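Tokens as discussed.
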């Protein structure tokens, strides 16, 4: 039963990774691409690692998979925020059809 659930999580993670990589190619600006890549890492790769944990159990590989999930969940959103904020501060423009720019509206990005 654990092997089947692990296999399902791995397939779901591969689907998230595929669509995240597709978003990197298709989206128009750095901010949308960054959003796609972070979703790909946090949902896709974490799902693959959780599937590995279910498949292997509490073995050394399973424990390492859980630690990698924890590391990814803590670092990926923070690094994406830092990259997007530094891109905005360095003058990288949003896509012309973007809805709003809260940093520019607030004027606190200096």
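Sequence:
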């Amino acid at each position: 039963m654990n092997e089947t659930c692990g296999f399902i999580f791995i397939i779901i993670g591969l689907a998230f990774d595929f669509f995240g990589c597709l978003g990197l190619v298709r989206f128009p600006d750095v901010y949308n691409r960054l959003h796609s890549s972070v979703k790909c890492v946090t949902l896709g790769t974490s799902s693959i690692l959780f599937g590995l944990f279910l498949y292997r159990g509490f073995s050394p590989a399973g424990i390492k998979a859980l630690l990698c999930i924890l590391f990814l969940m803590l670092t990926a959103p923070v690094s994406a925020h830092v990259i997007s904020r530094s891109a905005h501060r360095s003058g990288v423009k949003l896509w012309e059809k973007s809805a709003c720019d809260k940093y520019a509206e607030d004027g606190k990005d200096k």
